[in-house]
UniProtKB/TrEMBL annotation, chains A, B, C, D:
Homotetramer. Transmembrane segments: none annotated. Binds 4 FAD per tetramer. Each FAD binding site is formed by three monomers. This is Flavin-dependent thymidylate synthase. Its cofactor is FAD. CDD domains: ThyX. The gene is thyX. It catalyses: dUMP + (6R)-5,10-methylene-5,6,7,8-tetrahydrofolate + NADPH + H(+) = dTMP + (6S)-5,6,7,8-tetrahydrofolate + NADP(+). DUMP binds at Q109, W110, I111, R112, E120, Y121, S122, A123, R124, R196, R223. InterPro entries: Thymidylate_synthase_ThyX, Thymidylate_synthase_ThyX_sf. Belongs to the thymidylate synthase ThyX family.
Length: 302, 302, 302, 302
């Protein structure tokens, strides 16, 4: 279970006291505030705070464009225009703060997104909780034989059982030894900043993470993508739903132009134009490598 | 006058409709929201939005420090501890968005603070307003004879009058010519993106500017400093008052440890220690250059 | 003329003394070092330093991929793969430092690229030179009647002459008055930090600008684009040639996947797929707005 | 041993071929290039590339200060002036690229420095090596009883032996199980991106890390500090030696103004001034908390 009854009570308390504010408010995300949206076996995403809404994007863009928006008849149209033409700064005018509980190996991928603010639980200062990510059976996938960083078929039977046994047993033993080294009951044990090195990277950590909407979209594009590792993708997918409730017009534009869209190279454009004129382009006549041609076909065939 | 009656009415409308929210609210800054705080002759600072309060800093820090805050008895103490030990990430958990109207030469200094989000009024897209910064007589200072980037005594009499005449006349003529080149009434005039190059850098522009509290403190430390140019300092001072109302504990810690504090070099520490033991240290025995010694004396003499 | 004979002599001196180094060197860019590549009437771009070459990108990527590069048979292929799949970090491992002389209104667009290091000539500390950008006659374009931030036909005859006269006369007069206010010969004149506000934004400034290859590509994609203002585009085009000489494989991949490529939305992909199957898609059946459909047609028709 | 004979041979090859360059070269760091400077039991720091030297800092600053450096008689003096007055941009004009091998728990602290470029060895794509950090006996410290994130006395006898046994045995077993789950010899084993979660955070990873001198100084100030965890401090100390050889004047200024210096609060300055006038200030009359007073005394007593 991701949160304790005490924590659930704290969340209820946070949700019980609406305050009046003159700021822009977005009802769709107010409904999510503080609630723990479960991810994986013990993880969660909680919205702690937000700044701005769809109108805040338009409002910021209109400073940069003055009174000249007469040709874009409404906010939604302007937001689509901004997204299509890579005018990213108005999207930076919205901000979100999340509390996330996640395995360390996921946190290590996540932190590579540098344009964000982070406060992580400190294992130098505090003792880690005994909570480890153990994949659900349907996620116990074999190494892909075609993609060096992907997964293949799901493991079954004895092999799957053996993997689960290893993960559970090693996690438990590592934690027992962590506690033994800390040894707080009698004399002073090993320093916490040293003892923690014995813990595997499927142990859960947590952090506060704050970023703007433009950088969040970039995060979602990379991490909610089918090529992202499943264990971070499920966080991105949960966040994507929150964003759709928070800034529906911006999210719809993002879904159309980024998530559901594609990039075509100059070579690919040339092939497309030839194909639209009726030419039967093949990999050999495309100017692309085999891998690139395969990806191109996947794009145009959907 | 920095804003028109129409704009004042829009601001009143924005202030008229409080909404309920579950987010952290800071009453001290709610009172400032949307209001135009006047700066210089036509400029202003308006708070458009904010995220977080003093408690949000503590809350983020406590994720990074877990349950281990028992030795810091209260929020204010923890905030002071964080500021003193350069733990900057919890301060990044608060965010503010401002609408600022400012002369271009001030905007050029301001934009050097890179960790911020900006949407500026576009002179490619729109026509600039006829508003120029003309210094008040008491700001018409001569070049400093001791500081290559500072001001000396205030100009007086005919010299002051001549400077004001130049600034006003050149600004007016440049703008007349700008309008003439744009020539919108009859045929198509010169492109706006070209015509604007004729305008001097004391013309007013405006932007939305959003940053986090840590980076805002850095901005204030450099720009509310007596060595900063007066024309940006007055903006920083106005913002500093807003911040003091928004996050009083964080601002008090900042005032003590940063704005009112000082950095001492290893050489300076050595001198201090010798002086506290009764030694009469001089520039010659200090190990410092003359300039550095002068700054050191200014620091310890207050 | 962008540089003085004294400056030309300094550049010759810098180019006269090759030193041995163990670092990666890129002969194609060594040929450009220090030389002033002229841009506009008085501007230039000078390469001051660089770090890395095409191999440095591969080398960094191979740390992240260990010994597993067996499926990408050569450096060029790996570089294309990285570019195609938005693996941007290896491109960040190359760095370039430029000395640029440019009009202030161009500098104001340029500085919006925040992930870069900048040292600009200080008009608080020093006196600006009397050098202004005056457009060549073929650049004196009218405001576009279809694009709010674009140019239309070139001005001609008396109108063009009048614009040139205004730009030259106002620049000259502003500078005369700038000098008069500074008034250095006799008594102390107006502070430099104040006097500079009288200067128009077509005066030239200069700076050192340093960025990594990934961010430089982003700069080039936006600023070497036909929609960028001509006066910044010519700088981007000059830099693009330097980059092509510096990292030819990375530049070729960038030209194919970014500069010459395009983004297609989910809606656009759907239209493409229908068209490739023989359907006659129109704006009405496309799901796109008129503006978007026009851009879509321009893309597929080339 | 941090590197294999094959790797040593590759390094020798890299060092064998000096090339002529027109760029600024710094002989002091050329001597370090590519060489693996050992850190901890299996880690290292290798300088892969650098840009700039002390003169490059001055050169960049002189663009921002034009011809106006007559009052600072030499490069060293100007560098000290820039450091003392927090003019950080000229230091950003130097850049360094390192190859670092380090335990994951150290990498997790290191990556919090966001203004840097990183390429890390991928455990999704490749198989991790069997190399773990096992502390030397003199580093096996107990938890500090006064500092929640510090170390106390060194463990001894049976307790130390037990800790070492746990760390070694758990690391070995985790790695055995990692290999067993990957099971490459026969059929397809567990995906690498999943199997790696069983590995503890004292396993070694490696990355290319590139940053500018200003941000590197910030890293060194925090990580070469006595309060930093020993296991990252030793990396910082090794890098500090390299920097001292690379940019001796900048490093000396950094050592004086940052590493060896201190920050004094407004309250602390007031106490200092009173003490220098002969007053016997105590904690009670200082206006400081007990903890702050203790830190203040430590500073002035050295």
């Amino acid at each position: 279970m991701p949160i304790t009854p005490e924590q659930a009570a704290e969340i209820d308390a946070q949700r019980a006291q609406p305050q009046p504010t003159l700021r822009a408010t977005a009802p769709g995300i107010e409904a999510h505030l503080y609630t723990a949206l479960p991810v994986l076996d013990h993880g969660f995403v909680r919205v702690i705070d937000y700044m701005g809404d769809d109108s805040a994007i338009v409002q910021a863009a209109r400073v940069s464009y003055g009174a000249g928006t007469k040709h874009v008849s409404n906010d939604e149209g302007l937001i689509r225009y901004l997204m299509r033409h890579w005018h990213s700064t108005p999207f930076e005018m919205c901000e979100i703060k999340l509390h996330v509980k996640l395995p360390i190996f996921v946190a290590r991928q996540w932190i590579r997104h540098r344009t964000a603010n982070v406060n992580e639980y400190s294992a130098r200062y505090s003792i880690m909780d005994r909570e480890f990510y153990i994949p659900a059976p349907e996620q116990l996938a074999a190494q892909s034989s075609v993609n060096n960083q992907g997964r293949g078929a799901v493991l079954e039977g004895a092999e799957a059982a053996r993997v689960l046994e290893i993960l559970k047993t090693d996690a438990g033993r590592s934690y027992d030894h962590y506690e033994e080294m800390l040894d707080q009951d009698g004399k002073q044990g090993l320093a916490r900043e040293l003892a923690r090195m014995n813990l595997p990277t499927n142990i859960y950590t947590q952090w506060y993470w704050k970023t703007d909407l433009h950088n969040l979209f970039h995060f979602l594009r990379l991490r909610a993508d089918p090529h992202a590792q499943y264990e971070i993708r499920v966080y991105a997918e949960e966040i994507a739903k929150v964003v759709a409730d928070w800034v529906p017009a911006a999210y719809a534009a993002f879904a159309d132009y980024r998530m559901g869209g594609a990039s075509v190279s100059a070579t690919g454009l040339d092939c497309l134009r030839r194909m639209l004129k009726g030419e039967a382009v093949t990999q050999e006549t495309s100017g692309m490598s085999k891998g690139e041609w395969r990806e191109f076909l996947a794009m145009i065939e959907g």
